[in-house]
Automatic annotation (TrEMBL):
This is Phage terminase large subunit-like protein. Gene3D superfamilies: 3.30.420.240, P-loop containing nucleotide triphosphate hydrolases. It comes from Aurantimonas endophytica. The keyword Membrane does not apply. Keywords: Viral release from host cell.
Amino acid sequence: MSDTFETADGAAPGGPAQDDRQAGVADPSPGDRQDGSTAVEAATDSSLGEAVTAGHTVRPPVGDGLFSGGTAGVQGDAKFACGTAAADAPRPPGDGPTGEAPLGGAAAANDGPLTAAQHDVERVELIRRASVCALRGAMIPWHEVGRPAQLPPKGDWRQWLLIGGRGSGKTRAGAEWVNALAAGTPPFASRPHGRIALIAETLGDAREVMVEGESGLMRAALGARPVLEVTRRRLVYANGAVAQIFSSEDPDALRGYQFDAAWGDELAKWVHGEACFDNLQFALRLGERPRALFTTTPRPIPLLKRLITDAGTATTHMRTAENAVHLAPGFMAAMQARYGGSRLGRQELDGLLLEVREDALFDVAAIERLRVRAAPALRRIVVGVDPPASSTTRSDACGIVAAGLAADGTIYILADASVQGAKPHVWASAAVTLFERLEADRIVAEVNQGGDMVEAVIRASAPNVPFRAVRASRGKWVRAEPVAALYEQGRVRHAGRFAALEDEMADFGPDGLTGGRSPDRLDALVWAVTALMGPVREPRVRGL
């Protein structure tokens, strides 16, 4: 994903443009109905455009809204009639739109009117099968179909903090809110908002997720879509409203602008979060009641915790499971099987802000503060492996973490390739693959659990791989203390984000992890870092 907007002419983005053109009213966008009465749901054909069925204009799949999936538009003319007659008239057997048996089972094949439930099935199938009948617009406004947590809270708030799990519908909620403000669509706005700020972790994220993503602004817009002016880093609506795009990597870019609304996505991932947030506050000075929406998956960072306690903040929460109907089949089952009940699952799926343990060995705030995007040139790279005792689906993970040593003595965590419930040849192959990809110097693996088998399975994947066996003679806490000391000194940095690994680090106390789980990823990190820092000598006490 690019961190910048590429242009054909390489022109630099324009500076603050205080265009005072006002906006008109745009059609609201559909979402997912809650009452289930007559809504058409579960249309998933990604080739569809908007279709008319039973007298209604229905939108195509748009990510986490009314439908799931994406669409690239519709080509060609109508192949069969759309509208009330096409959807309501009963068909004889074998007279479906493609010559198949009619929808709704045997009851649908009988003469007589269709029931409401059969109407819904008919409509879904008409949309699924039709590659035509495409029209812009929809009859169902977002404030009627969005889940309550996706709609702006009542009250006199300055910032709306929407915290949710992965895939819970945060982006769709943000896109609908911004589009409604730009258009001045009630009940979200009583007037058009002509100046809106869009802020993401990077410019690439802003474009790929907030603007052009499946649930982004352009896909959620009805009627005339806003135009993306790449060189000026902004969206311009047909009515003149402007949404200016910013990156958290450059908080000073917000200086000189003024807005009457803002949408910040994934606040907890912002690179210079504090400075970016502060500059945005100074820029929110237009209109009678300038407001900001922040959508984010929770992380225990100071900015997010302070924002939650701010008197001007209205906070809502969403769980991934609440939006399961719009996610891939089997996604929730797979996520629950792997992360259900874990700290990471509570954060990433349930959208809960989890505080760091007071007795945790590692300082998560320090990890965040010292994080870098990429490591510099490295002198040595080691892959640490912490093999599991067994290989069933409920077994501990095989921790596989790579670390590298720079010329200045700083150690960089490079990758977490840990695998869960894998047989020995599978995790051995994963370790060797990471070794080869990073062109590492050595694999270091703990052999307490498997003895000579550990080296044997690794050499079965790569006979000549440099290998060093290590045996734990002390407890996990004691082994990890010297590594934690390096973190405190700023001598270990994470080159990227490793959510599962950092989850273990945040939850690792004197008694291990919460719930008695094994810190496999952390163990692998400790072995890799220890190998790079050299042996730790025990202090010797001399007599006088």
